[in-house]
User: Fold Arginase from Haloplanus rubicundus.
Amino acid sequence: MNDTVRIVGAPTDYGTNRRGVDMGPSAIRYADLAAALSAIGHTPRDHGDLRVGRVESDDPGRDDAKYLAAIESVCTRLADDVSDALAAGETPLVLGGDHSVAIGSVVGSARDADVGVLWFDAHGDLNTPVTTPSGNVHGMALAAILGLGEFAETPWANAAGVDPETVALVGVRDLDPGEREAIREHGIAAFSISDIDDRGITAVVAEALDAACGRDGVHVSLDLDWLDPTEAPGVGTPVRGGVTYREAHAALERVADAAAVRSLELVEVNPILDDHNRTAELAVELAASALGKRIL
Assistant:
């Protein structure tokens, strides 16, 4: 992991049907992200936000993959920014926006590299336009990255350096039938919230890290709805029964200890739904844990 952290905002809400998540990057910055990174020895370099259109002025296009053309534009530019950061010897930290931005983050991180992916999320994000119940692309992000279904024909989305066998889902608790099938068919390591209950967060994360063993490091995708809504109320698709505050920190600390964090993203913070910016503040704390903050 590099000492310089390049912060890139991707203020999108194309991938979801709940407005407000486009303000997530601002909320996370307002929660003293730069100061938190500096306090643990990193040099933050904020490259601002990508230019993103207003969802109200765009045509959603197809019903089974809404705003896909707009998402392609954002993710193509984001992939270049992430790749450029790595080429410059910096660690990319992407601030979403909805989880569709992960397509750009991972494609950029995996460009000419062998990368594992740790996906901390209540959801699998493994739907395709054929299986989606909503048409919202934030629920298809991981399927797009892996080139599943029709995404095999969309090179802007398919991260060639990521294999399904080096992806690990951690803490999932709300899966659609098509996502369960994709997990089984493609051999994706998936650890449910019940696994965490039974075995403990550190044991689960250790096994997930073994699965997500990319030669050139690990991309960490952190959707704040991974946590229980009592801890992170400011998310668009909350699911009861998520991880606790302490479990989340323990997980990210283990990641920092055991893996080369190549790139990181924080997504789905929706300040409109939040309580005094609690969720954005938690996102900052967890990013610091993933990037090396410790009690001692």
About this structure: The domain at 4-290 is CATH 3.40.800.10 (Arginase; Chain A). The CA atoms of residues 9 and 49 lie 4 Å apart. The chain has one domain: 4-290.
